[in-house]
Amino acid sequence: MSSGLAILKKRADFLAAARARRQGTSSMMVQARKRPEDDDGIRVGFTCSKKVGNAVARNRAKRRLREAARLVLPDAGQSGWDYVLIGRAGATAERDFTDLQNDLRYALRKLHARP
Question: Of 24, 45, 54, 92, most Cβ neighbours within 10 A?
């Protein structure tokens, strides 16, 4: 992603995010963790289980999550954090794209409001 977002690729990073904070919305689950090291930048990962549907449905949901993250995270995300966006069956692929972005903004506000 050219918008300053790095992509999570290692399973250990996904597992670390799964043990941290999470916030659900009607169209996705967002997991977030503050990285302990002093590196800046926002890292993001995407996942959709087979519950979301066949390969076509999962890829469509991930494409929509990637685009929402590209548009929302540079402004609403915090540097030094990892985010994992998890697609939900039916909702991620079918939800209006503006609502999908608003769901991500809402989840980020809730995640960063916690102490």
Answer: 92
